[in-house]
User: Which sequence fits this backbone?
């Protein structure tokens, strides 16, 4: 067995590999850029080596610097994680020349499967179902349009190298094919240093389902069931689960056997994943093979009980698989929600800054038998950088069946606290609450179909509004008792507190009666129509997350005092409740509302990033939907378009400038 493993990666996957290495008694080495000097993976490892400045091309993607770190520390093996160099065949070749083991597949398999054009040809030869498309290289946008017409719209324009949703666009017409080709090419060049593009037919109503493989260096290969990865945004996975709620036993077996056949065709060993597109009739087509550990591997581990990182290490050490296909059993259901530094209220644009609060739910087995796991690479007080991927954690829930797993995930999301940056926790909670998701009716277009106008905080139903009003009334009661106690101690007599209150939230008013008592953790909240809640809680001022028992029903609500209101966040709902006396509520109705500033004649930068291009000039008349500029942030190129017809009055920023969020780019007449 290896004595020391260097992890050529960062963030949560580096932390994940370190955990298993420590379990096996293997020393670990972390590498880090200047931006990651104080990162969690650096703290967890036994040794750490600085390998360069923040840009990944000068640090995590620099093979020579990885080799220098290997030599300096005496590591006898390297685990690449995912992303960065994990699918670059030059790394294992370079390590082999130094007598160092690569914890991953052979270079020939990486090269064959890393090129999507070559991989599809090999898949077809191995008898794997493939999607119709043009596998040759495409020179320019005009050729892309011609090919797209021949295949028939809609088409998927994809980078030949890489993955993670980078360099991918769907085109429904000539204009989108032309623009998508150029954007995909730019993203591919920036992310992978390879701008080759190919085009294939886009399968409508598709589900993204992948098969996990494990193979040793002695020719043994098994598949470990499937993962459903259909909840995606811009081809970036957001929620995954194992098994799929859609597959039957026969389809699972057929997909697994085809995945194994493909792996055997390229002499594959280590962990790998074969991704398929599956249509409404369970016809499946090869999409690509990822020759590395997948981001979503924890859900497979939870339903199989197999530590994939441990198996990768043992395989790289030359050991045989410790189980055969017949030994693989799927137990229960697991769901993974990816926590991204993306603001769902701003069309999921990247968000950077300091994590002023980062409190994940407790991990491990819970009293109800469910299991919570959180793979993360950050700490409270850490900085989310614009240089790297926006994913900061993967929250996983396991339960005996899918409904219980969804409920366990919902509760865990309620308990997860993140402050200081924009993040997608409210969105994840909203998806878990949707009937369509709970029924398992998924496609890769799920987010676009369910949130066509973008995401906004969920509106509480009448019953939910009552529950939150009761919570707000309970919080207010505790505040009133505390204030009365302070004033009583200072003035030698308690302040009088009324029992009648008006709770205003989400545009509605609810009158409640709250008899106050400082001797019990239970607050009684009675509504005008006679409905009464016994609200039990140990909430105290300063608590930002608390459990509330409402007539025996337990909910966890994030609570923050903001001005005279109480901000309540629960299951995708984000609202501010005001609890006022009847007289103050009457006066509040007369107060004018402050209107937001008018930015309708401005193009402002929606995220921190680099302005890569300005597509118009002063005096140009632009049409609705026309491209105005592009901004690159967190390795993604974002196109900014005109909302309506207008004339460009002034341009306030130049291409190449680093912009802050809401910084002015141009004005219109």
Assistant:
């Amino acid at each position: 067995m290896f004595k020391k493993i260097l992890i050529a990666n960062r963030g949560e996957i580096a932390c994940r590999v370190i955990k298993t290495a420590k379990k096996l008694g293997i020393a670990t080495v972390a590498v880090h850029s200047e931006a990651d000097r104080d990162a969690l993976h650096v703290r967890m490892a036994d040794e750490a080596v600085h390998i360069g400045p923040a840009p990944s091309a000068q640090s995590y993607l620099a093979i020579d610097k990885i080799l220098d770190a290997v030599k300096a520390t005496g590591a006898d093996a390297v685990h690449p994680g995912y992303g960065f160099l994990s699918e670059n065949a030059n790394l294992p070749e370079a390590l082999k020349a130094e007598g160092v083991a690569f914890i991953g597949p052979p270079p020939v398999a990486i090269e064959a499967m890393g090129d999507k054009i070559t991989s599809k040809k090999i898949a077809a030869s191995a008898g794997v179902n493939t999607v119709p498309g043009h596998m040759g290289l495409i020179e320019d946008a005009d050729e892309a349009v011609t090919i797209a017409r021949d295949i028939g719209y809609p088409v998927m324009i994809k980078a030949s190298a890489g993955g993670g949703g980078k360099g991918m666009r769907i085109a429904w017409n000539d204009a989108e094919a032309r623009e998508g080709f150029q954007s995909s090419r730019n993203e591919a060049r920036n992310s992978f240093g390879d701008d080759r593009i190919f085009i294939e037919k886009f399968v409508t109503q598709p589900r993204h389902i992948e098969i996990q493989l494990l193979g040793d260096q002695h020719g043994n290969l098994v598949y470990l069931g499937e993962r459903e990865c259909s909840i995606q945004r811009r081809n970036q996975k957001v929620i995954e689960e194992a098994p799929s709620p859609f597959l039957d036993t026969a389809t699972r077996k057929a997909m697994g056997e085809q995945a194994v056949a493909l792996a055997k065709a390229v002499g594959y060993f280590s962990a790998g994943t074969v991704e398929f597109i599956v249509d409404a009739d369970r016809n499946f087509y090869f999409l690509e093979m990822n020759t590395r550990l997948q981001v979503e591997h924890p859900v497979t581990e939870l339903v199989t009980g197999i530590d994939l990182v441990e198996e990768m290490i043992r395989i790289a050490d030359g050991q045989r698989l410790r189980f055969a296909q017949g030994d693989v059993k799927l137990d229960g259901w697991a769901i993974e929600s990816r926590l991204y530094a993306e603001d769902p209220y701003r069309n999921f644009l990247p968000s950077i800054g300091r994590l002023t609060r980062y409190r994940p739910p407790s991990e491990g087995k819970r009293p109800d038998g469910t299991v919570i796991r959180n793979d993360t690479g950050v700490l409270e007080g850490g900085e989310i950088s614009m240089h790297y991927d926006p994913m900061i954690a993967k929250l996983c829930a396991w339960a005996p069946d899918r409904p219980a797993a969804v409920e366990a995930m919902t509760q865990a999301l309620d308990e997860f606290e993140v402050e200081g940056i924009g993040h997608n926790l409210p969105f994840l909670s909203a998806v878990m609450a949707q009937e369509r998701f709970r029924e398992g009716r998924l496609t890769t277009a799920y987010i676009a179909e369910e949130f066509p106008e973008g995401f906004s905080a969920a509106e509480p139903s009448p019953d939910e509004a009552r529950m939150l009003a009761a919570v707000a009334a309970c919080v207010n009661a505790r505040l009133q008792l505390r204030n009365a106690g302070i004033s009583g101690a200072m003035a030698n007599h308690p302040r009088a507190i009324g029992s009648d209150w008006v709770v205003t939230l989400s545009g509605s008013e609810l009158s409640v009666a709250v008899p106050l008592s400082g001797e019990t953790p239970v607050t009684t909240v009675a509504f005008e129509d006679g409905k009464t809640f016994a609200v039990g809680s140990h909430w105290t001022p300063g608590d930002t997350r608390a459990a509330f028992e409402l007539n025996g029903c337990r909910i966890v609500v994030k609570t923050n005092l903001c001005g005279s209101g109480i901000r309540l966040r629960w299951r995708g709902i984000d609202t501010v409740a005001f609890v006022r006396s009847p007289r103050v509520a009457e006066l509040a109705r007369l107060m004018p509302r402050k209107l937001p500033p008018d930015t309708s004649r401005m193009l402002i930068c929606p995220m921190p990033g680099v302005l890569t291009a300005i597509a118009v000039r002063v005096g140009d008349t632009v049409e609705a939907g026309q491209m105005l500029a592009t901004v690159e942030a967190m390795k993604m190129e974002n196109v900014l378009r005109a909302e309506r017809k207008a004339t460009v009055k002034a341009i306030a920023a130049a291409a190449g400038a680093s912009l802050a969020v809401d910084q002015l780019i141009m004005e219109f007449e």
User: Anything to note?
Assistant: DSSP finds 17 helices and 40 strands in the chain. The chain has a mean pLDDT of 93. The radius of gyration is 27 Å. The longest helix spans residues 462-491.
